[in-house]
Amino acid sequence: MTVRPMVNRDSQFFWDGTAAGELRIQHCPSCEALRFPPGPSCPRCGAFDQGYVVAAGTGTVFSYVVHRHPPVPGKELPIVLALVDLDEGVRMVGEVADAVGPDGQPEIEIGTRLRVDFHRVDDDLTLPVWRLEEEQR
Ligand code: ZN
């Protein structure tokens, strides 16, 4: 079992994106603002128009926690959850894979560069997961 995110009319494009291997950020066609999390209207100009851009998939750790307890269904703890500042300027929370060392200490710090990857859970759900950028080279 996996904790499933809520998918609604406002966030459907995001989950369609992860399924397609894209990290999508909601974009306001009226004022060009980017926003996350997705919502029905633009917090900057109030427009109800919605579009999206595909993020480069890279970002920087703004802050993070090592989650050791309570248990999370489908997860082997500890895991690292980070607030990631995308290079496009929005901030989102996500799991950082393989970021806990054998000693149980996190292997990231504030400012660590991350790159998004996608974990396909099943036909209906693909979750974004972050990895240390240098590991992909
Ligand atoms: Zn706007």
What would you note in describing this structure?
The chain is mainly beta and 137 residues long. It has one domain (12-136): OB fold (Dihydrolipoamide Acetyltransferase, E2P). Helix content is 6%, strand content 38%. The protein is built from 1 helix and 8 strands; from the N terminus they run αββββββββ. The protein has one helix at 12-19; strands at residues 24-27, 34-35, 51-54, 58-67, 79-86, 91-96, 113-122, 125-132. The strands form 2 sheets. Strands 6-5-4-7-8 form a 5-stranded antiparallel β-sheet, with helices on one face. The protein has a 3-stranded antiparallel β-sheet with strand order 2-1-3. The site of zinc ion has 8 residues, from loops.
Question: What is the CATH domain class?
Answer: Mainly Beta
Number of helices: 1
What level of helicity do the residues show?
Answer: under 10%
What is the C-alpha radius of gyration, as a whole number of Å? 16 Å
H and E order: HEEEEEEEE
How many strand units? Answer: 8
